[in-house]
């Protein structure tokens, strides 16, 4: 496992709720330091190690519980010296102290749990995750390590329908409460059109934030992770709001890929109806930019349900064909 040293100025978010923050302070800045140690962290966990320089570990006040502050971290006496316990001191009159004590107890159970491995199919990268955390965030996967399955025997769960990037973002969310997304690579700000290429697998592998969000949404739908599913939906809406109309080539491909995934990879059910309806409305809104793309027409052929929903949002033309007019035969109608 690769370990990365933290500098004294580093502030690292820790815990799945992102409410606990670790801050490293030089000894001369601390008041009555009780511990001088250097801490290392991997991508999934925190470790104590032999000090390279004197550093005091201080845990900042939790924002949501201002009268409760963590007091110290105790570590094991074993060779690995993994963080094993968190304790805190608080104002006993604070009515939220009991609530936070319950959270700390849960955190301690997470820190002392064993590691299991997650891996995407055809990928050599193996992700280590605390089993207790996995059980709290995704019971559908964690249960495989509890039954009479090969996962329990070998300690590895292989995802046959999830990419390595999506799995990494899921674990980032599980530990930190959020996940990063690929940056939009904008080549221009003009109305460049993409006039070739079917709506094939290249759309699903497109390095676009909308595709990353939808991949996590599909992961959450398949493995029953409602909190991540809600977050991914929120990020999809925020990203589309920033795009407004898909006027660039990258945005056109991103939106078309999003529509393809939403209507071909997610079954029509009540839990995803809001997402699919919202995207159909947006497709009707951006139809002027999307309708000239062959890949968009391919998606409509793959998903008659999407085509039907888009049609329901279009206004009828205001002139008959025998009038000789050549106005656009459609218009956008808002969703009420």
TrEMBL record:
<dbReference type="InterPro" id="IPR000210">
    <property type="entry name" value="BTB/POZ_dom"/>
</dbReference>
<dbReference type="InterPro" id="IPR011333">
    <property type="entry name" value="SKP1/BTB/POZ_sf"/>
</dbReference>
<protein>
    <submittedName>
        <fullName>Unnamed protein product</fullName>
    </submittedName>
</protein>
<feature type="domain" description="BTB">
    <location>
        <begin position="113"/>
        <end position="183"/>
    </location>
</feature>
<dbReference type="Pfam" id="PF00651">
    <property type="entry name" value="BTB"/>
</dbReference>
């Amino acid at each position: 496992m690769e370990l990365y040293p933290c500098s004294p100025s580093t502030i690292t978010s820790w815990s799945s709720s992102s409410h606990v923050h670790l801050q490293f302070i030089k000894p001369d800045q601390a008041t009555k330091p009780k511990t001088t140690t250097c801490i290392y962290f991997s991508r999934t966990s925190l470790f104590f190690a032999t000090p390279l320089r004197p550093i005091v570990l201080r845990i900042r006040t939790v924002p949501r519980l201002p009268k409760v502050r963590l007091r110290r971290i105790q570590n094991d006496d074993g060779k690995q010296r993994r963080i094993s316990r968190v304790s805190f001191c608080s104002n006993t009159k604070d009515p939220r102290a009991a609530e936070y004590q319950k959270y700390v107890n849960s955190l301690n159970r997470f820190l002392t749990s064993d590691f299991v491995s997650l891996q995407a199919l055809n990928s050599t990268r193996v992700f280590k995750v605390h089993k207790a955390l996995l059980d709290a965030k995704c019971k559908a996967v964690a249960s495989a390590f509890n039954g009479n399955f090969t996962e329990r025997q070998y300690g590895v769960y292989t995802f046959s329908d999830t990419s390595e990037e999506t799995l990494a973002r899921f674990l980032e969310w599980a530990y930190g409460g959020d996940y990063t997304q690929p940056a939009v690579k904008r080549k221009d700000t003009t109305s460049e059109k993409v006039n070739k290429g079917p709506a094939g697998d290249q759309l699903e592998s497109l390095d676009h934030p909308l595709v990353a969000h939808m991949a996590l949404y599909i992961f959450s739908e398949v493995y029953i992770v409602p909190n991540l599913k809600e977050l991914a939906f929120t990020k999809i809406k925020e990203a589309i709001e920033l795009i407004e109309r898909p006027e660039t080539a990258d945005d056109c491909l991103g939106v078309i890929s999003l529509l393809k995934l939403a209507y071909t990879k997610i079954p029509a059910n009540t839990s995803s109806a809001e997402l699919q309806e919202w995207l159909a409305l947006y497709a009707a809104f951006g139809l002027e930019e999307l309708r000239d793309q062959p890949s968009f027409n391919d998606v409509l052929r793959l998903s008659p349900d999407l085509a039907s929903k888009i049609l329901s949002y279009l206004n009828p033309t205001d002139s008959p064909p025998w009038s000789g007019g050549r106005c656009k035969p459609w218009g956008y109608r808002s969703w009420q």
